[in-house]
Amino acid sequence: MIDYVNLFIDTEFTGLKQDTSLISLGIISENEKMFYAEFTEYNKKDIDNWLKENVLNNLLLTKQEKNSVYLELLPEFEGMITTVVGNKKYITKQFLNWTNIYFKNKKLKIWSDCLSYDWVLFNELFGGALNIPNNIYYIPFDICTLFELLHIDPDIPREEFIYINNNLKHNALFDAKIIRLCYIKLMYLYNNRIMYSHNKR
Predict the structure, then answer these.
(1) Is residue 133 over pLDDT 80?
(2) Residue 85 host element (H or E)
(3) Going from the N-terminus, what domains does the chain have, and what CATH number goes with each?
(4) What is the pLDDT of residues 60-90, one digit of tens each?
């Protein structure tokens, strides 16, 4: 029997277009192991005012040296986080090391939110979808589909759905944590067949 583990991921990138490039990657597992990376080789020419204000201003590792990896406790998060700064090759290597440390002999299911770009960019870390590691399940999953199946507007603000304030919106790791919390609540609603009410607590 295959032992699966859910990983919830989010990416920030330089634009909703075909030749976009990764700025950051946040991943949190179902048991709250965290991986956060900031890329040094994204296309600076694509950075507009919105990206500066909403993405670059929410980067967390601006003082960490290039091509470095740490296990640290960031004040914005609970728990120890593997943090990486570097180019795509270096970050990919550190991600694989991270999965080998925490999830050896397990199959990883990738969950995201509106994952069209996230999944393609994640695959590009390995040189394309045909090269993803054997321990990563080749079919991705999307919480938008769970919202739709439960007759909840897939466009609902995620923070409203889980009743929290997200002061780091568009930080990849914080958004990955939001995705995980939404998944937990959606699965609870599904398993208990509870109708979601839009009325806040």
Answers:
(1) yes
(2) strand 81-86
(3) 4-192 (3.30.420.10)
(4) 998 899 999 999 998 888 889 999 999 999 9
Residue in the structure block whose two tokens are 């897939």: 154
Q: Where are the alpha helices (DSSP H) in 38-139?
A: 49-54, 88-102, 116-124
- Segment 94-103, tens digit of pLDDT: 999 999 999 9
List b or e across 29-53, with b for residues whose CB sees 16 or more CB atoms inside 10 angstroms. beeebbbbbbbeebeeeeeeeebee
Q: Which amino acid is at 154?
A: P
Q: What angle do CA 66, 37, 54 make, to 5 degrees?
A: 105
C-alpha 86/C-alpha 84 separation (Å) is 7
To the nearest whole percent, how much of the chain has pLDDT over 90? 81
* Burial (0-12, 13-18, 19+ Cβ within 10 Å), 63: exposed
